[in-house]
Please model this.
Amino acid sequence: MTRLGVGLIGCGVMGRSLAKQLITLDQARLAGVADVNAEAANRAAEELGGVPAFDSAEALITQPDVDAVMIASPGFLHRPLTELAAAHGRHVFVEKPMATNEADCDAMIAAMEGAGKLLMVGQVLRFHPYPSLMIEAAQRGDLGELWGMNVTRIGGGFGGIWKQDWRNSRDTSGGVLMEVNAHEVDFMRQVCGRVVRVYAEAGHYDDTPIDYPDLNYVSLRFENGAVGLLHSSQVCGLGESSGMVQGSEGTMHYSSHLGEGGELRWKRRTGELTIHRAREMEIEVPVRKELRLYVEAIQQGLPSPIPGSEGRENVRVALAAYASAEKGAPVSL
Model:
């Protein structure tokens, strides 16, 4: 099978991470990189083996050996870049959040459907060790009737290499509930199903120049009757990533930073306890896995592993949480 030519748009930290995993795939090759910052594009091109570098997305997309692209730009640029790729008949992998509003999500889905090309959203947390085990257990029915789920992802905010001016605005980044917690919202939806009501208490407590809450407690009601709680913070001196799901057949709980350490404990109502430790598990690198699935879906004519409708729903839940916090009342979906 011919190797898929994939271009990278956006040569920041996440973009380079994607490209480093793509080049490990036998089925694909990195056809070039693009960034409006020519220095960043040239630096990434050299780091990634001397691939061609471009200072515009259009220059990359129009290359004849580019079959597909990975978009790792700020969220507010995802729509125009996806529409550009669709206009030139390219498949698209777009990082989360899919966009920063529902209208952009809808336009991206329509553009890709109109072009007859595949659109995949990068919800990589699904492929991390502990979340993936919990999703699989819930979807197999191992947990029985799902009753409740809580997820915590807290830390000190965007610093160092992650500090960017566009992250100060909800319009350009989506705020923390999209820029970061698109992962956790997606995870909770994969375990518990469709969200039907959102209630949030949130506020901006730090002196950072952002226009969205930096501390959020988001309560979710799922269609199946389960309840959920997302604790999101950028103002916490102690970082934590943990989660628990409770069901009629038992409880699963993990503690770690995105499943790279710690352990997952699975306590059945029969009394049996199973412990999983990521360091003892043989798993594919999560970013590599999502890109492999993207490439394989294109080459084999399969449905998108994570279609635009999934990314849109995560944006929708986050927007409902912002609206709920602003008006002090639940929002029904």
Remarks:
- Residues 199 and 330 are 4 Å apart (CA to CA).
- The two ends are 44 Å apart (CA to CA).
